[in-house]
């Protein structure tokens, strides 16, 4: 029992960075843009998010709001990178896969360079701490699982219904879905396809930045070169896995991180089993589920990856 | 929206010129249309009709020329500018997002309902009800577009345009995909509307032009070559002005053939996209050298039948014996290799690869054949020559055969598909709406080609909603209703009236 509770209480906060990043990627893809650069945006968010409290505190006490300033900076830089990506792939219609790899290398590289310049070695920050919810966190079992987390964990899970609402209940969400599926139809009815795509890229970028900052400020409480560790790419896969739907994406993120927590826990039991195979477990699982999930034909954004040009009919 | 609305008393365009790479799509066009008028715009495939209308909507920007509304010069940068003047357009290729509902598609343009925090769908629904009631156009707001037949989508487009407040309607070939009944209804409706609205109406069917329009303008190679009052000119005059020669649709008067069966469909059961049985125990026979016309209101299983024959839809039970082999549930490639030709209904998604060049599309089904490739490499010069020949023979209007097929005008895309399917020398041809969207000259040519194929011994299943096409070309007419063949009658006995009765589901038509 405690074994299971341990896995769950470990897995839930672990899933947050993936969850936020893949919700961002979902908005990109719903609008028809394939953003492989998520990893790079996360790296920038992770570094800049922790830079503010680090500079203020230099290891000593940091007033809590500086952490939140860090988060804001991460959001802003993510949105900015989304904007830059938009200029490349929307305005100049560069191939999105290639541009995404460029963005990934740019983000990871720049964050690493800035890190060495401003910080240098491994330095931890106090970061944002667990904030148990009064009363609710006292409930046995459930309290530990759901109400004893970092504030950002709650925020991330509240983002799921919010993203759903935004996508399916607001005019903006409708526009996003339309430009990702049939941009020509959206254009013919007076919607500025490129503008909506830019907006979606900025939202997606901001969320990627926030996801990165979650890693550095809440999870690791430090920055290191490999901090993102491929989560940006996993986020892209999770969007497919979750069929571009926030709730299913959340399911995918949880499944993945619970598998990760499980393998950590098994390693902790000290069973004599090559740990390399355990480390593979979450990835193998995602591949298996992706391979066996029925391909969605109609819900996916049909214009994904295709630049829009009104005067080119093909 | 409505506040900024300025009513249009007259719309005038002057010296509009629009070029695409290698094409002069509109060449110094000047036209005027006044309030309450119905202007019919006719012309061959690729004449520039759609391009001109896209310019009126602010979708394309003319290279030269200007536009005046009520005498004042206007400059449209996007469709929003056109909407502000109450100009709305039903596009030739429907502009509906397939995985959204009717309601959402209309909401997409109905800015009044755009409360930023919540899309006011109820308001859109009310607006749809209002328009539906006013014009007698019913649509199901909660249906997804992909679930709708072409005719229903057409109605949604019209409702959408009206919901957005259009008082100046541009209709680009609105009837090309409609059944005869739907067409009659639409024409009647438009006639009624023309008392309230101004309309520009594009069609290849001159009967409609005569019925509906007060003035007619003919476009050829991007130029206005004729303008006049409709009542002063007969349909055949207009046809002659349009194509430059008399149009005579050929008739099938060859004796019925006796070469033996080519396609035998027995007790076929096939499901539709929505899961119910679209074909329910359907049986149908087509001989070599015979054209069987399949008449019916669209949505009665025609599409599913064509797809099942061509391996694109799972056959639940029954058999499709093609030249002695049961091809039910074969893959499309196997079916093609058996000698089947197919002109699909969805020309852009199933008929061509839009981003491939014309010459590539023309050999799409034969890239592995010895004619166009040796084991490793494509024979480019042969492909080139094949493309050139077919372009000339089928009169495909394009600057060259290397441009993307998707950039062609609607009718010319259809010609590419027909050229490929007919020139492949199939043993059998399933032709679904083969002349949809073609101009009269092209339709005449295609009809001749189909008859020639028939005389060469090819069996043809002709699926069409144009009764004239069916009765002109067929040896036998089969009427499909609710997934079953209602009756098969010789074409000589197939009067319009009799077919109409059968298509409506009455089995024993001789009683009436
Ligand atoms: N976006 C585009 N890019 C390149 N060429 C184009 C484009 N749009 C139209 N054309 C070309 O311009 C010409 C006019 O096309 P248009 O679609 O206006 O013809 P149309 O009169 O509407 O024909 P149809 O009756 O077949 O619909 C054609 O030769 C077409 O190939
Ligand atoms: Mg056209």
Beta-strand residue percentage of chain B? 25-35%
Bound molecules: adenosine-5'-triphosphate, magnesium ion
E-strand count of chain B: 22
Largest interface, C-beta within 8 A: A-B, 28 and 38 residues
Our measurement of the CA-to-CA distance between the termini of chain A, rounded to an integer number of angstroms, reads: 59 Å
Strand residue percentage of chain A: under 5%
- Output the structural class of chain B: alpha/beta
Order of helices and strands of chain A: HHHHEHEHHHHHHH
- What structural category arises from helix and sheet content of chain A? mainly alpha
What is the makeup of the main sheet of chain B? 6 strands, mixed
* First-last Cα distance of chain B: 53 Å
Mean pLDDT across every amino acid position of chain A:
90
- The shape of chain B is globular
Radius of gyration of chain B: 23 Å
CATH class of the largest domain in chain B: Alpha Beta
Walk me through what this model shows.
The complex is a heterodimer of chains A (314) and B (512). In chain A, 70% of the residues lie in helices and 1% in strands. With 314 residues, chain A is mainly α. Chain A has a domain at 16-228. Chain A has a two-stranded antiparallel ribbon with strand order 1-2. In chain A, α1 (2-30) crosses α10 (231-241) and α11 runs antiparallel to α12 (275-292). Chain B has 512 residues and is of the alpha/beta class. Chain B has 3 domains: 10-243, P-loop containing nucleotide triphosphate hydrolases (Rossmann fold), CATH 3.40.50; 249-339 and 426-512, Rossmann fold (3-Layer(aba) Sandwich), CATH 3.40.50.300; 351-424, no CATH class. Chain B is 32% helix and 26% strand. Chain B contains 17 helices and 22 strands. Chain B has helices at residues 49-56, 79-84, 102-107, 121-135, 150-163, 180-193, 206-212, 235-243, 302-309, 332-337, 347-351, 358-362, 380-394, 410-423, 440-455, 467-473, 496-503, and strands at residues 10-20, 23-34, 38-43, 64-69, 72-74, 87-90, 114-115, 118-119, 168-172, 198-202, 215-220, 223-229, 261-271, 277-287, 291-295, 315-322, 325-326, 340-343, 428-432, 459-463, 476-481, 484-490. Chain B has a 6-stranded mixed sheet with strand order 6-9-10-3-11-12, sandwiched between helices. Chain B has a 6-stranded mixed sheet with strand order 18-19-20-15-21-22, with helices on both faces. In chain B, α4 crosses α5, α7 crosses α8 and α13 (380-394) crosses α14 (410-423). The N and C termini of chain B lie far apart (53 Å). The model of chain B has no long low-confidence stretch (mean pLDDT 90). Adenosine-5'-triphosphate (ATP) sits between chains B (20, 23, 25, 43, 45-51, 92, 397-398, 407-412) and A (311-313).
């Amino acid at each position: 029992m405690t074994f299971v509770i341990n896995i769950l209480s470990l897995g839930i906060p672990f899933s947050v960075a993936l969850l936020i990043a893949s919700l961002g990627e979902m908005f990109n893809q719903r609008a028809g843009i394939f953003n492989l650069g998520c990893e790079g945006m996360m790296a920038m968010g992770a570094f800049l998010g922790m830079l503010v409290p680090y500079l203020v505190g230099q290891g000593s006490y940091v007033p809590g709001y500086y952490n939140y300033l860090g988060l804001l900076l991460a959001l802003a830089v993510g949105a900015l990178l989304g904007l830059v990506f938009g200029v490349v792939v929307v305005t100049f219609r560069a191939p999105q896969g290639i541009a995404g790899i460029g963005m990934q290398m740019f983000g990871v590289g720049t964050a690493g360079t800035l890190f060495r310049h401003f910080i240098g070695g491994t330095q931890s920050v106090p970061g944002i701490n667990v904030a148990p919810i009064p009363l609710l966190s006292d409930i046995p079992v459930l309290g530990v699982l759901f109400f004893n987390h970092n504030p950002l964990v709650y925020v991330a899970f509240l983002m799921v219904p919010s993203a759903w609402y935004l996508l399916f209940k607001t005019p903006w969400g409708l526009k996003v879905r339309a430009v990702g599926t049939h941009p020509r139809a959206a254009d013919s009815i007076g919607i500025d396809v490129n503008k909506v795509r830019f907006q979606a890229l900025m939202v997606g970028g901001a969320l990627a930045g926030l996801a990165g900052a979650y890693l550095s400020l809440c999870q690791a409480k430090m920055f290191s070169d490999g901090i993102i560790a491929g989560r940006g790419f996993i986020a892209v896969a999770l969007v497919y896995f979750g069929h571009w739907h926030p709730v299913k994406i959340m399911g995918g993120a949880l499944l993945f991180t619970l598998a990760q927590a499980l393998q950590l826990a098994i390693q902790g039991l000290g069973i004599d089993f090559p740990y390399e195979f355990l480390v593979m477990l979450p990835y193998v699982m995602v591949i298996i589920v992706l391979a066996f999930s029925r391909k969605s034909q109609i819900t996916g954004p049909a214009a994904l990856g295709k630049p829009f040009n009104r005067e080119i009919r093909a | 929206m409505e506040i900024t609305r300025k009513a249009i008393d007259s719309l005038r365009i002057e010296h509009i010129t629009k070029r695409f790479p290698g094409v002069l799509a509109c060449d110094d066009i000047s036209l005027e249309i006044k309030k309450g008028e119905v202007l019919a715009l006719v012309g061959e495939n690729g004449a520039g009709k759609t391009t001109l209308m896209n310019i009126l909507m602010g979708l394309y920007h003319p290279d030269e020329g200007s536009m005046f509304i009520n005498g004042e010069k206007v400059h449209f940068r996007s469709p929003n500018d056109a909407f502000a003047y109450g100009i709305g357009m039903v596009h030739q290729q429907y502009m509906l997002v397939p995985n959204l509902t009717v309601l959402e598609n209309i909401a997409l343009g109905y800015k009044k309902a755009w409360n930023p925090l919540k899309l006011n769908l109820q308001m859109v629904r009310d607006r749809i009800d209002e328009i539906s009631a006013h014009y007698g156009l019913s649509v199901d707001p909660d249906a997804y577009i992909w679930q709708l037949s072409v005719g229903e989508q057409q109605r949604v487009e019209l409702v959408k345009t009206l919901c957005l407040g259009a008082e100046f309607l541009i209709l680009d070939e609105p009837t090309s995909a409609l059944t005869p009944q739907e067409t009659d209804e639409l024409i009647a409706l438009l006639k009624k509307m023309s008392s309230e609205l101004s309309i520009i109406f594009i069609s290849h069917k001159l009967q409609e032009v005569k019925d509906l329009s007060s003035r007619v303008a003919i476009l050829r190679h991007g130029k206005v070559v004729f303008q006049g009052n409709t009542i002063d000119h007969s349909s055949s005059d207009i046809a002659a002005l349009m194509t430059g020669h008399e149009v005579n649709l050929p008739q099938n008067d060859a004796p019925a053939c006796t070469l033996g069966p080519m396609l035998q469909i027995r007790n076929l059961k096939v499901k539709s996209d929505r899961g119910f049985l679209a074909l329910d125990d359907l049986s149908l026979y087509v001989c070599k050298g015979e054209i069987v016309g399949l008449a019916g209101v669209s949505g009665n299983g025609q599409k599913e039948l064509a797809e099942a024959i061509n391996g694109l839809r799972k056959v639940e039970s029954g058999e499709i014996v093609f030249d002695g082999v049961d091809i039910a549930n074969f893959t499309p490639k196997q079916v093609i290799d058996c000698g089947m030709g197919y002109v699909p209904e969805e020309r852009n998604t199933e008929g061509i690869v839009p981003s491939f060049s014309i010459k590539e599309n023309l050999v799409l089904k034969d890239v592995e054949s010895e004619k166009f490739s040796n084991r490793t490499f494509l024979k480019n010069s042969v492909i080139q020559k094949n493309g050139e020949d077919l372009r000339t023979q089928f009169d495909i209007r394009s600057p060259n055969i290397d441009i993307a097929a998707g950039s062609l005008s609607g009718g010319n895309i259809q010609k590419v598909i027909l050229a490929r399917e007919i020139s492949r020398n199939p043993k059998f041809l399933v032709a679904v709406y083969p002349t949809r969207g073609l101009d009269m000259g092209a339709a005449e040519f295609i009809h001749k080609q189909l008859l020639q194929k028939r005389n060469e011994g090819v069996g043809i299943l002709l699926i069409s909603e144009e009764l004239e096409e069916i009765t002109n070309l067929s040896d036998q007419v089969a009427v499909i209703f609710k997934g079953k063949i209602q009756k098969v009658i010789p074409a000589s006995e197939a009067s319009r009236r009799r077919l109409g009765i059968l298509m409506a589901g009455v089995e024993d038509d001789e009683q009436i």
